[in-house]
């Protein structure tokens, strides 16, 4: 499969991506992973990106697109890939379209995860993350709680509610998403690539996406 995953914070993109990868061996690609790998490997693009990051500046789209073009040509992408959290803006989507055209890569479609706002709020405000930086296991106080004393089941460290997962912070993140990223829904609809899935249960969503891929 070759798909892009769209969805608001808390829509379950990470969980859906993991299940889809398990289904057919496709790999997950995120800009965060691209940047970290390039910086760690010390590539020319990585050194350029590190300069921006060290100054606290955003890495330019042009640099990210150069990294993406290289990544999409690597051997493990032949089986398939899921772009998670990228593109985020219309200019990025247009640049990605040109890259894929050059590489003769066609998307199967773009998955838009549609989740009611009250479910997103419930998911994120009940999320807890292991405070151990080398673990960071994620829990949910309702569906997958940590130990009774609030510690991580894997490493025993305390679990915390992240600052960006309070209700006020989440509402702000949703507002930013609607302003900057939601317009991508219209862009890909215009390209004839958009498929929207009501995503309340990740396993049901994955089954629906796989069914759509086979049709």
Topology-level CATH name:
Rossmann fold
> How many domains, in number, for the residues?
1
How many E strands?
8
Largest sheet properties? 5 strands, parallel
What is the number of helices? Answer: 9
Q: Strand-and-helix sequence, N→C?
A: EHEHHHEHEHEEEHHEH
Global morphology: globular
Structural class: alpha/beta
Would you summarize the structure shown here?
With 215 residues, this protein is α/β, with parallel strands linked by helices.
Could you describe the 3D structure shown?
- With 215 residues, the protein is of the alpha/beta class.
- It has a single domain, classed as P-loop containing nucleotide triphosphate hydrolases (Rossmann fold).
- The chain is built from nine helices and eight strands.
- It has helices at residues 13-24, 31-41, 44-54, 61-72, 90-103, 117-125, 167-180, 183-190, 202-214, and strands at 2-7, 27-29, 81-84, 109-114, 127-130, 138-140, 159-160, 194-198.
- It has a five-stranded parallel beta sheet, with helices on both faces.
- Strand 5 and strand 6 (138-140) form a beta hairpin.
- The two termini are 13 Å apart.
- The model has no long low-confidence stretch (mean pLDDT 91).
What are the defining features of this structure?
single chain; 215 residues; alpha/beta; Rossmann fold; 9 helices; globular
Layout of SSEs?
Blueprint lengths: L1 E6 L5 H12 L2 E3 L1 H11 L2 H11 L6 H12 L8 E4 L5 H14 L5 E6 L2 H9 L1 E4 L7 E3 L18 E2 L6 H14 L2 H8 L3 E5 L3 H13 L1
């Amino acid at each position: 499969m070759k798909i892009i995953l769209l969805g608001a914070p808390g829509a379950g993109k990470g969980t859906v991506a993991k299940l889809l990868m398990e289904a057919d061996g496709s790999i997950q690609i995120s800009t965060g992973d691209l940047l970290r790998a390039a910086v760690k490997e010390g590539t020319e693009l990585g050194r350029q990106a590190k300069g921006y990051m060290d100054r606290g500046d955003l890495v330019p789209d042009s640099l990210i697109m150069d990294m993406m073009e290289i990544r999409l040509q690597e051997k493990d992408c032949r089986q398939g890939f899921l772009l998670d959290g990228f593109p985020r803006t219309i200019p990025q989507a247009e640049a990605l379209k040109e890259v894929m055209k050059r590489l003769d890569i066609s998307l199967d479609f773009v998955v838009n995860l549609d989740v009611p706002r009250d479910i997103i709020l419930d998911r994120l405000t009940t999320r807890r993350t292991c405070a151990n930086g080398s673990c960071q296991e994620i829990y949910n106080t309702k569906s997958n709680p940590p130990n009774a004393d609030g510690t991580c089941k894997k490493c025993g460290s305390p679990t915390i509610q992240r600052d960006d997962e309070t209700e006020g912070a989440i509402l702000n993140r949703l507002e930013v998403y609607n302003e900057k990223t939601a317009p991508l829904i219209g862009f890909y609809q215009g390209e004839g690539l958009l498929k929207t899935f009501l995503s309340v249960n990740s396993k049901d969503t994955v089954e629906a996406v796989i069914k759509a891929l086979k049709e």
